[in-house]
């Protein structure tokens, strides 16, 4: 991903894995996420500001961008933030995940070291649910009859 002059793009180290997992769930989600991240990096789109959400942690310096499969439900979010480094604007992707149970916000807060102690159980529960659902999807895919 590139960015125009005066703007840098970077991603949390786990974002690449987020995107790969999306592709395992549904390749269309991966394609959509990568396209949106490119647009964010280029400054062609912008998300909505997040607030200090007491339960999820302080994400008031972050933004959310909604997406899903074209023509389908808006099920996922990209959480990112912008930082200033001298005269350079840095756009940093923090998490690319599903919205259900606020998982993407819990994950972003966890990655930024801002997850409140009161939300740790919810984060672990949501994380285990996502892992179980993805395991079921992969198992069903492997058991599909081939033509």
UniProtKB/TrEMBL annotation:
Q: What is this protein called?
A: Unannotated protein
């Amino acid at each position: 991903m590139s960015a125009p002059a005066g703007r840098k793009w970077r991603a949390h180290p786990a974002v690449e894995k987020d995107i790969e997992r999306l592709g395992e769930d549904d390749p269309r989600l991966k394609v959509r996420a990568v396209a949106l991240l490119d647009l964010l990096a280029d400054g062609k789109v912008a998300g909505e500001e997040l607030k200090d959400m007491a339960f999820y942690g302080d994400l008031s310096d972050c933004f959310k961008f909604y997406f899903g499969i074209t023509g389908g439900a808006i099920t996922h979010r990209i959480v990112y933030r912008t930082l200033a480094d001298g005269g350079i604007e840095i756009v940093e992707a923090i998490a690319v995940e599903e919205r259900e149970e606020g998982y993407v916000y819990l994950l972003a807060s966890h990655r930024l070291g801002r997850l409140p102690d009161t939300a740790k159980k919810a984060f672990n529960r949501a994380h285990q649910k996502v892992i179980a659902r993805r395991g079921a999807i992969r198992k069903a895919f492997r058991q599909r009859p081939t033509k």
